[in-house]
User: Fold this.
Amino acid sequence: MKTKLILFVTILSCGLLQSQEINCASTLDEFSKLVENKKFDDAETKMKQLLAKCPTSNENLYLLGEKVIQNKIDLSSNDDKEKAAKEMISLYDKHDQNFPNNKSNNAINKAMLYYDYNVASEEETFKVFDKAFTKDKFQFVNPLALNTYFRLFNENYKSTTDGSIDLMLNKFSQILAVIDKNKSISPESEIEFENVRISASSVVKNYLTPENLTDYAERNLKANESNVEWLSGTLDLMLDRCADKGVFGSIALRLHAIQPSSKSAYALGVFNLKNNNREKAVVYLKEAADLATNKLQKAKIYATNASILFGFDKKLAKENAILATQNDPSNGEYYIFLSNLYASAVQECGTTPIEKKTVYYLATKMALKAAEVQPKLKATADVLIAEYKKNDFNSKELEQIKKMDNKVILECWINETVQF
Assistant:
């Protein structure tokens, strides 16, 4: 009798266990539909079943689960938000445990929850951020997370460093690299990433003296002469502050030798310009513009080149200014530049009154174009046009132009046939 009772209990227990088993695929499908229909309370029940019985069945469990718990965080009172945040952290941990190769950046998400809801100390939060940054800094696709990490890094730096600025400058350089890469990948976040740049720059502004940067570069160049990331980052640090220094030129040359790019060519152009070698500067800046992949960037570099060339090679200045307008036709400043360039050539390119007035005609045409493409420049354009109009053709000159088939040939560097 006792044996029969034991057998009965065993069979009953197995039946209960089997009744608790679920079909992972169908239950996940039900869960997905509940989330899609925003039935989050029912979805949470399904989620808990799946986490208990099917934790490795499908990664969507965790991606959908994040939406469920985020809704819970959003709707919780301030007193309950920390508890809900801890549930999210637990979900992230399980996600990483069961799908270790996932691309959800859970360590960063976890650190943000630590920070936002005071789940952990700032020191612990920093350690989680720092570990994630060391593993792969470019996973910081959330501008707010990047900004929070650097703020905590600075607090940690001030409390633990021995006074060496190399650690700070290295980290700031890396932050700039993340900003540049991730904003290009996510153009919709460009403004937010630029705000991070401004915030981070304000943190380190006292360290970024020409003396500090020059010493830092000289001290670390030899050890990093083949380190593209360091070379590129150090150029970023120095470009607006001490691009005239010899070490800046050395870094730019080294980077250009092992990985030529618009950036390295531009740095060499600026270095030579700062050291009064305009001819070399123009060559490198032209290369920088040619290598640039972004049209607005191309336009800016061509415009910079044009402004340099204005004083000693107006033909090339014109060519570069026109290239600027072709790459960014909505920027009226480039047409204002052309207007001034033409107006400066009245005496050197006009040998007759008609030719001189034709030069003014071209200058007027460019000023009008500037106001057309960028209306905010209309006031500037109107001042130029009023001055140029003082040199309009008279009726006798207009008759003479008609006899010339309504065209005037300008030689000199302008080299244009102007049709009226």
Notes: Residues 4-19 have pLDDT under 50 and may be disordered. The longest helix spans residues 78-98. The two ends are 118 Å apart (CA to CA).
